Amino acid sequence: PPPPTPSPTPPPPARLTISAVGDVMVRSPQFNAARQADGAYDFSQCFGPIAEYLSAADFTLANLETTISTEERGYSGYPCFKSPEALLPALKDAGVDVLTTSNNHCFDAGWFGVTHTIDKMKSYGFLHTGTFLSQGEQSAPLVLEKDGVRIAVLAYTFGTNGMETIIDEDRLAYAVTYTDDWEQIHADILTARQQADAVVACVHWGGEYQREPVLSQQELAQKMMEAGVDAILGSHPHVLQPMKFKDVITEDGEQKRAFVVYSLGNFLSNQRDRYKDSGMVLNLTFEKNFTTGATRIVDADYVPTYVHKYADANGKNHYQVLPVSGYLGKDLEGNAGERLTAVWSETTGHMDTEDIKAR
Questions:
Q1: Which of 182, 215, 234, 250 is most buried, taking the most CB atoms under 10 A from its CB?
Q2: Preceding amide of 237 cis, omega within 30
Q3: CB-based contact 53:20 (threshold 8 Å)
Q4: Residues 6 or more apart from 254 whose CB is under 8 A from it?
């Protein structure tokens, strides 16, 4: 008889790493600081010290909490964010791959702001989700893929600051999805699960400047996890809110371990108050077992960050996102050194858990 055919050896498990940061904000002092002598803008200095942490992952995500504008249409800070295009290549060069635009400022420049921001993100090679130009785009989840591991990314916001009133009603049906539209979110999660091994949801929610999640955040997180979301990345509060692993029983009766960070805080901003001047780079490692087909998060850690704002000898402002641990004890302008020490203890005291530690 012919020799038995050896069963093929299953491929070893594969890993995909994701890093995520919180809100990327640009108020007028920031774009004035980025303006060069020749009138052009350059934001690259903002991300120099943190770039190695952003580029280490397979994919790095950020919440772009501004629209991209043009010289002719002008730039503005709060309350309607319209930023120079130069912000995008600076983020890209620093290692950000994915931008989410589902937030309360996505309609700040009307429909032009939605379309122009998407066009510009594409032109710099960003993967993006959160705002859409058609029903077809809205219904197709963004999927990140490496070595046979597929991660879908969804994005939602609690609101759009009343600016939805200037968007055509037909376009509103697909332009952005709100957190109160559970039917749509649930459908998105099911679609994403069919197309990917794991699902990440970026959710813009919660109370501004609140260091703890409100009940509505916790309830929505629970529903999303039970529907099959593996990791939830929160933004909007502009301060860090806790994170944890949760064991849930899904709607299908499957037991799974999911992850939530209720707020990633500010990544880049002009907000200087305590807790608002800091954030983090979160790192998640997903592992796929090709024998069972199961994909899970096997590792999570984070890098506390601080926005160092200082003026040079000419009085010109500078902004730099610093990895806190790398700058502790270093001589920095003003009282920034003291603040860094405080940020380290504030952040780790609030965010560290048994299985998630700062580095």
A1: 234
A2: no
A3: no
A4: none
pLDDT, one tens digit per residue, over 110-160 is 999 999 999 999 999 999 999 999 999 999 999 999 999 999 999 999 999
Q: Give Cβ neighbours of residue 352 (< 8 Å, ≥ 6 apart).
A: 358
60 within 8 A of 18, measured Cβ to Cβ:
yes
Checking 173-180 for CB contacts under 8 A at 24+ apart, the result is 173/135, 174/132, 174/134, 174/135, 174/137, 174/138, 175/107, 175/114, 175/131, 175/132, 175/133, 175/138, 176/102, 176/106, 176/107, 176/130, 176/131, 176/132, 177/102, 177/138, 179/203, 179/204, 179/205, 179/220
Question: Do 167 and 121 meet the contact criterion of CB atoms below 8 Å apart?
Answer: no
What angle, 0 to 180 degrees and rounded to 10, lies between the N-to-C axes of helices 215-227 and 182-195? 40
Strand pairing report for 82-83 and 67-68: parallel
